[in-house]
Amino acid sequence: xxxxxxxxxxxxxxxxxxxxxxxxxxxxxxxxxxxxxxxxxxxxxxxxxxxxxxxxxxxxxxxxxxxxxxxxxxxxxxxxxxxxxxxxxxxxxxxxxxxxxxxxxxxxxxxxxxxxxxxxxxxxxxxxxxxxxxxxxxxxxxxxxxxxxxxxxxxxxxxxxxxxxxxxxxxxxxxxxxxxxxxxxxxxxxxxxxxxxxxxxxxxxxxxxxxxxxxxxxxxxxxxxxxxxxxxxxxxx
Length: 237
Known about the structure:
This protein is of the alpha/beta class. Helix content is about 35%, strand content about 25%. The chain is built from 10 helices and 10 strands. The relative contact order is 0.18.
């Protein structure tokens, strides 16, 4: 289990996270929703070792992560699908996937996992020779998820995976998130599409200006009148 306790992250004199605590139990989908600037991406980047906490602790399977760098955190089985995908546009789809396995030495296992990614994302197999920068936005997002899965994570964190995608593609991305979770990978999901994110979440947290404003099951927050008004357009979809 991932545990975040009393986490404070500051940029200069401004606190982006103001003492937040969350739990991410093994095998679940945990969702963070909130407006731009609420601190969602900062939380993921801090867990990943890309930002430094001013106060508080981050532990995973009883080990404190605060002092570890990003590579060591990946070695513990945690990976991040960043906002904006961040694929390598001048490399092929297959080369991008292989980069995701850069810490691994098991060639046979890597080949097996590439085939699993292709089963999950058939379009990536069809385009495995293609430069990643020429893919559609949805295909690039699939590639970013597939690349993150290549290190066989126990916990995958996703930052705005539906951003800028067409509605039909968004539905497919969320279906794949559920399949990844059903196959045994824990998911920590940051999303502005609150409706879709809450539907798949076992538990969800609402961040507002660096603080946890509300928490509950996905269903509870979907039915909450404040959440409906603030994030769901005043009606349950």
